[in-house]
Amino acid sequence: MYKETLQEIGLSPNEAKIYEGLLDIGVSSVPEISLKIGVHKRNIYDIIPKLMRKGLIYQIAGAKEKKYAPVEPNKLKDLLWEKAEKLRQILPALTSQFEKATTNEAVYIYKGSEGFKNYLRDILTAGEDVYFVGAKGGWFDKDLQPFIEKFLESAAKKKIKYHHIFDYEVKKFAPELLRALGKPHRFLPPAYSTTGAIDIFGDHIVTFSGLTLKNITEDVTLIVIVNKELAECYRTWFKFMWDHCAN
């Protein structure tokens, strides 16, 4: 039932099956586990030591036949914390490597919800105000909310401000966005609504296609241009549009 999630946090398919099987049946021998989960005994014998090293199961002492029991599931959080701690320790070195290899100019493409998350990470890295043209409230996609909440907390610490020129439909069909985001914001005239948008922050210009109101699908494409001079040009054009759009 939960093996997919267990695999996502680092267990192999058979490790997930054995651990979840033991949670279901309790103290068991290898033949009993095999019968329960449908994995060959030979494979279980190979995996039992791995689960023991991870601290997820333990052997019952004194049993005539070797039997095993699961450790309570909160141990899984410890495994995640340990991995996160290991990553934290090497992140400064990885970041240094990345910055050495990063050029001042680039063009690349992000796709879908994971690409959208990368774009938000770029905003945090830039740490500067963001200017939106044709905004449609993609940040309010319900499937992105856990990530967005963390993003907004980090952005607030960096004092990043947002300047929105929304598509006109936002005023009519999604007024809750305006209440949540607050001002400043303005609106394009109704005749100028599109499925695209442009965001500018730092040295970045991000052009979106395939957008709909409050939704980021896997079909959304983000074309990212990194160029300091061009980004300043776009900010200048944004100011012109801002001055000629309605409140």
What would your notes on this structure say?
The structure is a single chain. The protein is an alpha+beta fold. 51% of the residues lie in helices and 19% in strands. The strands form two sheets. A seven-stranded mixed sheet has the order 4-10-9-8-5-6-7, sandwiched between helices. The longest helix is centred in the middle third of the chain and has 27 residues.
Main features:
about 250 residues, alpha+beta, Arc Repressor Mutant, subunit A, seven-stranded mixed sheet, three-stranded antiparallel sheet, 10 strands, about 50% helix, about 20% strand, elongated
Instruction: Tell me what portion of residues adopts beta-strand conformation.
Output: 15-25%
Low-confidence stretches at least 5 residues in length (pLDDT < 50)?
A: none
Number of separate helices:
10
Order of helices and strands: HHEHHEEHEHEHEHHEEEEH
Largest sheet: 7 strands, mixed
- CATH homologous superfamily identity of the largest domain: Endonuclease Chain A
Second CATH tier, the architecture of the largest domain: 2-Layer Sandwich
Number of domains: 2
User: Which structural class fits the helix and strand makeup?
Assistant: alpha+beta
| Rg (C-alpha, Å) | 25 Å
Give the helix/strand layout.
Blueprint: H1 3-8, H2 13-25, E1 28-29, H3 30-37, H4 41-53, E2 57-59, E3 67-70, H5 75-101, E4 106-111, H6 112-126, E5 130-135, H7 145-157, E6 162-166, H8 168-173, H9 175-181, E7 185-187, E8 197-201, E9 204-209, E10 221-226, H10 228-244
Parallel strand pairs: 5-6, 6-7
Antiparallel strand pairs: 1-3, 2-3, 4-10, 5-8, 8-9, 9-10
